[in-house]
Amino acid sequence: MIGEPLLILALAIFLCTYILLLALPKYRAYVAIAAAAVFVALGILPISRVPEVIDWNVLLMIAGTMGLVSLFIESGMPSLMADVLIDKVPNEKWAVVTLALFAGVISAFVDNVATVLMVAPVALNIAKKLNISPVPAVICISISSNLQGAATLVGDTTSILLGGYAGMDFLDFFWFRGKPGMFFVVEAGALVSTLVLLYMFRKNNTPVSCNERTVVTDFVPSLLLGGAVLLLICASFIPDKPAITNGIICTALFVVGLIRDAIKGEGFSSASRHLYEIDFFTLLLLLGLFVVIGGITEAGVVDEIAKLFVSVSGDNLFMIYTLVVWASVLLSAFIDNIPYVATMLPVVTGIASLLGVDPHLLYFGLLTGATLGGNLTPIGASANITSIGILRREGYKVTAGEFMKYGMPFTLAAVVTGYLLIWFIWA
Predict the structure, then answer these.
(1) Which of 179, 310, 372, 415 counts the most CB atoms within 10 A of its CB?
(2) Can you give the residue ranges of every domain in the chain?
């Protein structure tokens, strides 16, 4: 049993870590790894538990998808997609919004990080062709993918946690017990947040045009990436599958692409350049954060936060629901939402039992707040960290303030919409 002094120490280390992550964007990976080492060295997280708290599936999936995207980019397909999109939209504003919507559709069925890795190269190509900064477009792709992750059972890990805990299947997210499910709530939030994006980019009316369309001759990388999407969707319906299934799918297809590239090129030297395209800085950052979150969970910090909900809400259902939603938004902006949701599910079940109400009101409120809260900061979600990493590799430094310029109004619009709809449908 971890004592209160150690709990306070863990909370202090955690707060210092996130302050440094926000203050030192160039050194985030080293800050996270150092903080992880401190948690282990102080015995807050036993070294034997380190492999357990690291989400190897996410790390493998990101590494494999980064490799596939590298092959995809070299084939010229993102450039062709950019050319087609430029032909279909009248100006820069609609190009950004269309990319965000496109990412959202994909993210309802594929992990948010994988979505960012697939769609961001298209935004980068459009920005290069128009000679504009890709930062706004890539940020919008990231926050849109985070929003739509809550739309279906397979869109995000938090949705999978809720489905497993509440015994919900894929169709329950569309229509549940005779009422609209999370899918329609999320889509309503997406509609309102899209209007927010259109307003934010209202002055970006630079005409877009494509003088010459890119020619693509190698379609195998596109097939590999499309195959990854299809297999990830199919794998989501397999019960009791290994925890690293998605990671194995992405890395295995990347290996297939590397072997093919080596055969048709100049051996390993031809294929190895794609290994260098993997952003190991981002992978190290996520690895460190997994250990840090595991440390504060082990110390009881997440559990104490959960207990606080019960003590301050009283017996007022609306107050409890409001606190669950908005505290989840705030907390998920700084801590990983997976352990938070896993901890809070039994807590909200207990609250619902005491009040004698259907727990799904609080389940859906928790999912909405915890999933969307990550959009408030650049470190609140793995997809955000990945998008910042992509921009950094392209030479663009994104500050927390610049990210929040787009993330905050988008998040508030989507959360308020979901918050009101869930209450009126399920209360």
Answers:
(1) 372
(2) 4-426
